[in-house]
Amino acid sequence: QNGNNSTFNGSTAIGGGRGGSEGSGKANGASGGSGGGGTYNGTGGSGTSGQGNDGGLGAGSNPFRGGGGGGKGSAGATGSASGNGGAGTNSFSAYTSGSGGYIAGGGGGGQYYYGDGSSGGSGGGGNGGNGGASYVTGQGATANTGSGGGGGGSPASGTGGVGGAGGSGLVVIRYQSSTQKGTGGTVTSGGGYYYHTFTSSGTYVA
Questions:
Q1: First to last CA, the chain
Q2: Cross-strand partners of 6
Q3: Fewer C-beta within 10 Å: the chain N or C terminus?
């Protein structure tokens, strides 16, 4: 399903679009802040301008790989290329959740039977499942990064795996100052800025 929105003071970061699905509930990737990746013979969802990027196309021929979910930094890759999730962004490098300060990476596409699933995008995106004996369930995204979970893989016969859960979101308030000007959230500082980070509902007081 689509991710939930994160909001602050009238501004809204739109939740990511869910990935495509096969079988009786077949659907293309859905639109959102970033679009969900397409199933192996479907299209990805559209991202929202200024917030994210499109999901990748699925590959309708061997190796039958789903497209990657879009990330804040780039679109999801097509399944015929790699199906990797789109890269995130390190705009909040003083906030070090995820990898190297990156957040909002896309989930990797799952693969049918032949091998490994695709990699999640930098910033916490989950890897896609494969169809072999090792795993079919997509990997969950890193918590508090707003990243996408990996798509489920599918074995040669039997039931395919489910997608991994997306990562919970966050709100970061940043201001340039040599002293702390407000309270609320987890407070960090660096590079002449203060950061108030919220990973659940809360109140900022200036």
A1: 36
A2: 13
A3: C
